[in-house]
Amino acid sequence: MRQPNSTPTAELMLRETASQTAGPYVHIGLALDVAGLPERDEEIWNRMAWPEAEGEHIEVVGTVIDGNGDPVRDALLEAWQADARGEYRPEFDLEQPFNGFGRTATTAEGASEWRLETIKPGAVTRGDGRVMAPHINLAIFARGVNIHLQTRLYFEDETEANAACPVLNAVESPARRQTLIARREEADGKVRYRLDIRLQGDNETVFFDF
Amino acid sequence: MQNANKRFVERDRDWHPPAYAPGYKTSVARSPSQALVSLQAPSASELTGPDFRQLRMGRHDNDLLMNFREDPALAGSAGLPVGERIIMFGRVVDQFGKPVPHTLVEMWQANAGGRYRHKKDGYLAPLDPNFGGVGRCLTDEQGWYRFRTIKPGPYPWGNGINTWRPAHIHVSVMGPSISTRLVTQMYFEGDPLIPICPIVQTLKDPEAVETMIGRLDMARSRPMDCLAYRFDLVVRGELQTYFENQ
Q1: Is B180 in a helix, a strand, or coil?
Q2: Cβ contact A35:B117 at 8 Å
Q3: Is the CB of B80 inside 8 Å of chain A's CB atoms?
Q4: Alpha helices (H) along chain B
Q5: B128: Cα within 13 Å, side-chain hemisphere
Q6: What confidence score (pLDDT) does residue A188 get?
């Protein structure tokens, strides 16, 4: 039976459903608290690690900046990362101390920062045996973003691992690689990494296709 | 080594809307001007993704007629949202037609008057005290998902002097990995606002627009109760490489 709203291609394969912007009200669907809606039994949000989780506990924060240099105040971000040993653990369960997936949003007021509470991921070995420096995969959804943008957050203090990372090195311009590297701060006894994501213009963040 | 032999069909970025689509004005300052960097050797970072089978869902999470009812004890039509009652359902499959079971499908929408229950929506149409506008569910073994809701209304927005969004429901699907992640919108078959919407027009290929249109399905409509719209979601196809070549 033909898919009613899908189109076969010459390669006898269906076409992917086309993307559309998540729009300004994305919070209603994916960030209920931000929208002002009551939360359900369990929500997917920005606390990815609880104290029992193995690894270095960190906070990751940043902004999203548009081509005019203004903060994007309605962005939703999704994070996907390995555990402290460098293994991806797909089972999402809020009963366990660590989940590799989280969501966050920039705030409508004030500094307009997004924030994740997590652990620092371990290095991940690629299929070809090469080791990628510790990183968090980020997807950005927002009004005006027609298909989500995919980037990675790396850690400033992983100097050697970063220098050897095959993905960072796939970015030809060394200056552009710097757009992926979060700066380490320490505040209130917490380790915090900061990464500002620039959608366009000076120091535009590197976005990936995969 | 994790997933050494797995990959996904390349995403056709000419099929999807481009980042820069000036007819949709907000995209102008929010679109990267540099080229995307292609990752030729996929790793577990892209080939894996969250599995939400353990996420605890409420009884009415996929029933928008019930999940924001002021008083759940009310009987009959008391306390139900205003609007055309509909079933929105479909199948999540990959590009090879293989069902995607147990994957998270989320949706959100305006009420029958075209107003979102969101702090930032100040449209004239009133909020409906019995309608929240959010749903979620997991697909079953065969990739099917289903929501019960009301048909959202069209609404004006500030892109042009007199621009209106066609009635639409936002839909989010995860699929087997973060490579298959997709957020889209379902439009309703026959809506005259579809071809004149600047957001729909971000797509270059009319065939791509067809993938976003929910079809009236009389067979699955419930007599004397509600109409049904079918909306299948197609995510990137998963490939296995059976032969070692290195």
Answers
A1: helix
A2: yes
A3: no
A4: 44-47, 206-210
A5: 27
A6: 84
Partner-chain contact B43 A132, CB within 8 Å: yes
- H or E element in which residue B132 lies: none
Q: What is the SS3 assignment for A170?
A: helix
| Span A185-200, pLDDT tens digits | 998 889 999 999 999 9
Q: Which of B170, B181, B215, B230 is catalytic?
A: B170
Please give the torsion angle defined by the CA atoms of residues A60, A64, A70 and A71, in that order, rounded to the nearest 10 degrees: -60
Q: How many residues does chain A have?
A: 210
Print the SS3 string covering A20-75: CCCCCCHHHHHCHHHHCCCCCCCCCCCECECCCCCCCEEEEEECEECCCCCECCCC
Residues A128-178 pLDDT 10s: 899 999 999 999 999 999 999 999 999 999 999 999 999 999 999 999 999
- pLDDT for A70-108, tens place per residue? 999 999 999 999 999 999 999 999 999 999 999 999 999
Q: What is the DSSP string of A133-168?
A: PSEEEEEEE-TT-SS-EEEEEEETT-HHHHHH-TTG
Average pLDDT rounded to a whole number, residues A109-131: 95
What is the token pair recorded at B106?
A: 């989320």
Indicate the residue type of A199.
L
* Cβ within 8 Å, pair B95-A14: yes
A11 confidence band (pLDDT: 50, 70, 90): low
**Could you report the predicted ipTM of this complex, rounded to two decimals?**
0.95
- DSSP symbols for B12-45: -TTTSPPS--TTSGGGTTTS--SPPEE-SS--HH
pLDDT for B1: 42
Alpha-carbon gap, residue B125 to B244, rounded angstroms: 60
On chain B, the residues whose CB falls within 8 A of the CB of A94 are 54-56
Taking CA–CA distances from B245, the nearest residue in chain A reads A128
Helices in B122-211 by DSSP H: which ranges?
Answer: 206-210
| Residue in A78, A127, A139 nearest the CB of B43 | A127
Residue B169 to residues A179, B18, B193, Cα–Cα distance (Å) = 35, 21, 14
Position B2 scores a pLDDT of 44
Return d(Cα B56, Cα A91) in angstroms, integer: 13
pLDDT at B17: 98
For chain B, which ranges sit under pLDDT 70?
1-4, 242-246
* CA distances, A139 to each of A61, A75, A105, A152 (Å): 14, 10, 11, 8
**DSSP 8-state class, residue B161:** S
